[in-house]
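Format notes (please read before filing issues)

Several people have asked whether sequences and structure tokens are stored in separate files. They are not. Every record keeps both together, in the order shown below: the sequence lines, then the token lines. Line labels are part of the format and must not be stripped during preprocessing.
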Amino acid sequence: MENNERAQEALQLEALLVSRAYLYGLFHKLLGGAPDDELLDCLFAQMTFDALEEFGEASAQLQAFTALLAAKRHERADDPSGFASRAHDEYTRVLIGPGALPASPYESPYTGVHDMATFQADTLEVRRLYHAAGLMVRREQAVPDDHVALLCAFAHKMSTRALDALRLGDFAALADALRGQGLFVEAHLSGWLPVYAQSVRNSKAGAQAVLYPQLLEALGAIAAADAVFLAESAFWAESQSEGLEDVGRNRADAGCKVAASAELRQAQAALDALESLHPFGIQDNELVELRMQPEG
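Then the structure lines:
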């Protein structure tokens, strides 16, 4: 493959990985913390629409969600405080309580042997995956590891690691990262999320939907599209026998270097801004570096 063609493909993959990291990071914050004005600004930012377009080209469900999100953006513009209040109330009803939730936001009740029980085998399997990646739930033991927000946080962090490997030209590490994430998405996201979303939609909260039932449905569609993307991208990374060790030089050979670089810089800036947000309650649904156990 010519260097210029490979550089073009690497740029396209980089844009998709930034979009992937952004979407999972956004859903981590939306499902793990209260939707304040800054978080809603990110939800309705152009970067969200661009990222959804990247993943939604072949998904009628994501295209419909993108149209709905545009309508919600106008709704919020017409009544910012009212929309924020309705979204916050719905977030509390769907994900916090104190009353009974319309559906469990944990994976294990949908895939385990004990209905509606948390801390089942799948919970511990997810914890093992976090630990293998050098991560852990900030409040491990107190908070089940398979909360939907934590699963999104893990997908986000792994996508940023894949980005680092691509930017370094380490295609072996990139292929491993993408293959591993493909297994994670298929095992812990794409299977149960549609069932969870449908359960919320069928509840009283779904009948009065403001934002969160639609977000959960969109997340299920993103996971389905992501599984396909990860498989195809891993195959591409594995096919790069020589690699692009000097990524900067090969990018310079690409005809769309200036435009692509500007777009990627803007996307990366949006991703960095999102990562800096700490909505109320997110500390209960965060992944941090794995603490080393003391010897002896």
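For reference, the curators noted about this record: The chain has one domain: 3-289. The chain is about 70% helix and 0% strand.
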